Amino acid sequence: MIETARDVMIIISAFLVIAGAITVTVIAIMVYRKVGPTLDAAQGFFTDIRSVSAFFTGKVMGPATRGAVFAAGLRKAISTISKRAHSTGKGNGDGKRE
Q1: What is the mean pLDDT of residues 36-53?
Q2: 3-state secondary structure of 95
Protein backbone atom coordinates (compact mmCIF):
# COMPACT_ATOMS: atom_id res chain seq x y z
CA MET A 1 0.00 0.00 0.00
CA ILE A 2 2.74 2.51 0.94
CA GLU A 3 4.74 1.50 -2.14
CA THR A 4 1.77 2.20 -4.35
CA ALA A 5 1.22 5.64 -2.77
CA ARG A 6 4.93 6.42 -3.19
CA ASP A 7 4.82 5.43 -6.88
CA VAL A 8 1.73 7.57 -7.46
CA MET A 9 3.41 10.57 -5.78
CA ILE A 10 6.52 10.11 -7.93
CA ILE A 11 4.38 10.03 -11.07
CA ILE A 12 2.43 13.15 -9.98
CA SER A 13 5.67 15.00 -9.11
CA ALA A 14 7.22 14.11 -12.45
CA PHE A 15 4.09 15.32 -14.23
CA LEU A 16 4.19 18.63 -12.30
CA VAL A 17 7.89 19.14 -13.08
CA ILE A 18 7.29 18.49 -16.79
CA ALA A 19 4.25 20.81 -16.81
CA GLY A 20 6.28 23.53 -15.05
CA ALA A 21 9.14 23.23 -17.55
CA ILE A 22 6.71 23.46 -20.47
CA THR A 23 5.01 26.49 -18.90
CA VAL A 24 8.31 28.30 -18.38
CA THR A 25 9.36 27.51 -21.95
CA VAL A 26 6.08 28.82 -23.38
CA ILE A 27 6.31 32.02 -21.32
CA ALA A 28 9.92 32.56 -22.42
CA ILE A 29 8.94 32.16 -26.09
CA MET A 30 6.04 34.60 -25.67
CA VAL A 31 8.27 37.19 -23.99
CA TYR A 32 10.92 36.78 -26.70
CA ARG A 33 8.34 37.32 -29.44
CA LYS A 34 7.11 40.49 -27.75
CA VAL A 35 10.55 41.88 -26.87
CA GLY A 36 12.32 40.90 -30.13
CA PRO A 37 10.72 43.57 -32.37
CA THR A 38 11.16 46.18 -29.66
CA LEU A 39 14.86 45.36 -29.40
CA ASP A 40 15.20 45.52 -33.19
CA ALA A 41 13.51 48.93 -33.24
CA ALA A 42 15.75 50.16 -30.42
CA GLN A 43 18.83 48.94 -32.29
CA GLY A 44 17.70 50.85 -35.40
CA PHE A 45 17.05 53.95 -33.32
CA PHE A 46 20.51 53.86 -31.75
CA THR A 47 22.09 53.28 -35.16
CA ASP A 48 20.35 56.42 -36.40
CA ILE A 49 21.49 58.36 -33.34
CA ARG A 50 25.06 57.17 -33.92
CA SER A 51 25.00 58.34 -37.56
CA VAL A 52 23.52 61.73 -36.60
CA SER A 53 26.17 62.10 -33.91
CA ALA A 54 28.95 61.26 -36.38
CA PHE A 55 27.56 63.77 -38.89
CA PHE A 56 27.26 66.48 -36.23
CA THR A 57 30.77 65.83 -34.96
CA GLY A 58 32.30 65.86 -38.44
CA LYS A 59 30.40 68.70 -40.06
CA VAL A 60 29.60 71.05 -37.18
CA MET A 61 31.90 70.44 -34.23
CA GLY A 62 35.08 70.05 -36.30
CA PRO A 63 34.92 73.49 -37.92
CA ALA A 64 33.60 75.09 -34.72
CA THR A 65 36.48 73.63 -32.74
CA ARG A 66 39.03 74.76 -35.31
CA GLY A 67 37.50 78.25 -35.28
CA ALA A 68 37.58 78.42 -31.48
CA VAL A 69 41.22 77.29 -31.42
CA PHE A 70 42.11 79.86 -34.06
CA ALA A 71 40.31 82.62 -32.12
CA ALA A 72 42.06 81.64 -28.88
CA GLY A 73 45.45 81.68 -30.62
CA LEU A 74 44.71 85.03 -32.23
CA ARG A 75 43.61 86.48 -28.88
CA LYS A 76 46.80 85.20 -27.21
CA ALA A 77 48.95 86.63 -30.01
CA ILE A 78 47.26 90.04 -29.74
CA SER A 79 47.64 89.96 -25.96
CA THR A 80 51.34 89.10 -26.25
CA ILE A 81 51.97 91.81 -28.84
CA SER A 82 50.03 94.32 -26.75
CA LYS A 83 52.07 93.52 -23.62
CA ARG A 84 55.34 93.84 -25.52
CA ALA A 85 54.27 97.15 -27.05
CA HIS A 86 53.46 98.55 -23.60
CA SER A 87 56.69 97.33 -22.05
CA THR A 88 58.97 98.95 -24.69
CA GLY A 89 58.29 102.49 -23.49
CA LYS A 90 60.80 104.69 -21.68
CA GLY A 91 61.65 103.29 -18.33
CA ASN A 92 64.06 103.71 -15.47
CA GLY A 93 65.73 100.34 -16.06
CA ASP A 94 63.61 98.25 -13.71
CA GLY A 95 60.93 97.46 -16.33
CA LYS A 96 58.50 100.09 -15.06
CA ARG A 97 57.48 103.11 -17.05
CA GLU A 98 57.72 106.58 -15.59
Answers
A1: 88
A2: coil
